[in-house]
Specification:
It contains 19 helices and 23 strands. By secondary structure, it is of the alpha/beta class. It folds into three domains: 388 residues, TIM Barrel (Alpha-Beta Barrel), CATH 3.20.20.80; 89 residues, no CATH class; 108 residues, Sandwich (Immunoglobulin-like). The protein has an eight-stranded parallel sheet. A six-stranded antiparallel sheet has the order 15-17-18-23-20-21. Strands 16-19-22 form a three-stranded antiparallel sheet, with no helix packed on it. It is globular and about 80 Å long.
């Protein structure tokens, strides 16, 4: 008699064999019989009807939400590119014990720049990055201590769900089964155990989810590539049994269909689930960008809304007149299941721009209410909202999403302000020209409090979602001196308003960049290097890992996140850009601006909360330290009072005291190291 545990093991082994295309036909037949329930009932539900929500939540104590997500530091990791559990040296386990080796399969040593950088043949290395690389849930789980010591309090994971069989969708956005974990990564039980282990260390878990589309799960008639054409509905051949299959499975609901093919749960197999309009060509054309397929990924019909382009601006009317589809209701139930099953703390919702705002609102309401019923009163849904800051603010206001990510001008202004090519902003004007302008009061966005953006915007750089950029690169990838500026850009990210997020590998100074000329296909790949090395390690290396807890950037982030936890104003405080002066003479204080297109100078700001002020500053000059006078709040720090250096990226400066002088009200003269970051309070 096969036990339930044996059944799960059979399914897992079968999936791993399928990955390597090495299943013996007789073994395959037996395993399929197990999976289909001919030997024992399948562990993963085929239908939403099989889910007993009452049983899932009965007697379970769910991990609470934070008081405010401004207190959190997020870390995004690509599961396939993070850890395979074979690494040794340079890091400690979750209990703080050094991981040594080699021992058994733990045979991947730490990367050494002088020995390993550039050691791989570039084309083979790049081709390896276009396919699955081998990161797993088990490897991710054993790196929780690494993340905890970095100062991470919430980990955002790329989609874990089962992808189209035999596809190269390592990124996780081509879902075939919304109720299962992809076997490349592990099992549902391993995922639940990971979340439990993360919670034990005080780390929350955010899932990256998709409701706009599924994977390339069906073929159009004749297996032809179809594109959007004035809302035309194209005829369909059938569901795919695997990637590249011409549509050999019947199109319609069939609970006995091959579990490796079509789409699951079975409720999503109904033909009304899909818009069937072909691929988007005009990414800003309304309603094409709502109803078209996202490249080859098949668009889900989330409901009926207004199609008149003249009314596209009227979000409230579109929401009022929106009618949700059964597919939207089913997907809402799917993601309620994951909260109940795995105790998830938040979601990052993909491609919000490509969904009707009424669908987003329906989904957000369903998820929030369910989470609150479990005691998760501040379950956060972070929407990937491209299209500018004003549009993002409007979507948040009208749909009930909690925060926005992917606002294209934030990473641009953050990165290139530090590199000296963008203005930091000017509070004396209403122009939204610089990074700090994005986080102050804005009549344009109808936000009348300086606090709003702090809790509703996720700030990050280095990520692969670089909208409109053909040849993508990480912060360090464009020029050798950019690595010197990492403390400055990270200081801004961690100590300014917003919910900060670290993109995996930044703490190890990953330098991925697409340096090809002409060809820009698969440019994302260059920003998705493997932390564990494998065939696609960072810095064009192989078989060397990057979990180095002594790396200076890792240590910098760890120090600043620790200070952030100690100083509430660095997390929740009002934010004021500060005037600076080289001379200290009254009337000679100004907000730094570009001169002849560049700016290598001091950018300073204060965070103020309940009578406490922390003064922060970065130096965008990578060649030399700079000393300037900086204005501070005269009511909190009158002339004659003292500010102490709480943190400096240069050794020997911490704990230095400076006196507040009667210049421009109140100001202090401080030195900021080259490409450095300091905090005074």
């Amino acid at each position: 008699m096969i036990t339930a545990y044996d059944h799960d093991a059979v399914f897992y082994v079968y999936c791993r064999l399928r990955i390597h295309r090495s299943v013996n036909p007789k073994i395959s037949a037996f395993m399929k019989a197990v999976i289909k329930g001919e030997v024992i009932e399948r562990a993963v539900e085929r239908s939403l009807r099989e889910i007993d929500f009452a049983k899932l939540v009965a007697g379970k104590r769910f991990y609470p939400s934070p008081a405010t997500w401004e207190d959190e530091v997020l870390y995004f990791l690509f599961l396939d590119r993070f850890s395979d559990g074979r690494e040794f040296g340079g890091f400690s386990d979750n209990e703080g014990n050094p991981v040594t080796g080699p021992l058994g399969e733990r045979n991947t040593p730490l990367f050494v720049q002088e020995r390993d950088a550039g050691s791989a043949e570039r084309q083979a290395w790049f081709e390896a990055g276009r396919d699955w690389c081998g990161g797993s849930i088990a490897g991710m789980k054993e790196k929780l201590g690494y993340l905890k010591r970095l100062g991470i309090s919430a980990v955002w994971i790329s989609p874990v769900f089962r992808q189209v069989t035999d596809s190269c969708d390592y990124h996780g956005y081509g879902i075939q089964n919304f109720l299962d974990v992809d076997p490349h990564f592990g099992t549902r039980e391993e995922l639940k155990d990971f979340v439990e282990a993360a919670h034990a260390l005080g780390i929350r878990v955010i899932f990256d989810i998709i409701i706009n589309h599924a994977g390339d799960v069906f073929a159009y008639e004749g297996n032809l590539q179809r594109v959007y054409e004035n809302g035309r509905e194209w005829p369909v051949q059938g569901y795919r049994s695997r990637s590249g299959d011409p549509g050999s499975l019947p199109f319609g609901v069939d609970e006995d269909m091959d579990f490796e093919g079509a789409v699951w749960p079975v409720e999503l197999q109904h033909e009304r689930t899909w818009t069937r309009h072909g691929e988007i060509r005009n990414w800003d054309g309304f309603p094409e960008f709502l109803d078209g397929d996202f490249c080859t990924l098949k668009d889900v019909n989330l409901g009926e809304g207004l199609k008149d382009p003249c009314l596209a601006w009227d979000l409230q009317r579109r929401i009022r007149e929106f009618s949700p589809s059964q597919a939207l209701k089913d997907l809402s139930a799917v993601y309620q299941f994951w909260i109940a099953y795995a105790d998830i703390d938040g979601y990052r919702l993909d491609t919000v721009k490509h969904m009707e705002p009424g669908a987003v609102r329906y989904f957000a309401t369903a998820v929030h209410e369910f989470a609150e019923s479990l005691g998760k009163e501040n379950f956060y849904i972070i929407g990937e909202i491209t299209g500018g800051r004003g549009y993002a603010a409007s979507i948040l206001d009208n749909t009930g999403l909690d925060a926005a990510l992917g606002i294209n001008d934030i990473p641009d202004k953050l990165e290139f302000m530090i590199k000296g090519w963008r203005s930091p902003g000017n509070p004396d004007t209403e122009d939204q020209e610089g990074y700090f302008d994005l986080f102050r009061n804005s009549l344009l966005d109808n936000k009348y409090t300086r606090q709003w953006y702090g809790s509703h915007i996720v700030t990050m750089f280095d990520d692969h979602d670089q909208v409109g950029v053909k040849h993508k690169f990480r912060f360090v990838g464009d020029a050798p001196q950019s690595e010197l500026l990492l403390p400055a850009v990270l200081g801004v990210n961690l100590a300014t308003a917003g919910i900060p997020c670290i993109y995996y590998g930044t703490e190890q100074a990953f330098d991925g960049a697409d340096c090809r000329r002409g060809d820009d296909a698969y440019s994302d790949v260059f920003l998705r290097e493997c932390m564990f090395g494998g065939r696609f390690g960072s810095r064009q290396s192989t078989e060397r890992h990057f979990f180095n807890e002594e790396h200076p950037v890792y240590r910098f982030i760890s120090d600043v996140t620790a200070l952030r936890r100690q100083r509430i104003e660095l997390r929740r405080g009002r934010q004021y850009m500060r005037q600076v002066s080289a001379t200290g003479n009254d009337g000679d204080f100004y907000y730094p601006q570009l001169i002849d297109g560049t700016m290598h100078w001091i950018v300073a700001w204060s965070r103020i909360f309940a009578g406490r002020e922390s003064l922060c500053a970065v130096n965008t000059d990578a060649a030399q330290p700079l000393s300037v006078y900086i204005v501070v709040d005269s009511t909190i720090h009158p002339p004659g009072s003292i500010l102490r250096c709480l943190y400096s990226s240069a050794e020997g400066q911490q704990h230095d005291d400076v006196a507040v002088e009667a210049r421009q009200g109140s100001s202090v003269r401080i030195t900021v190291p080259a490409a450095g970051f300091v905090v005074y309070a």
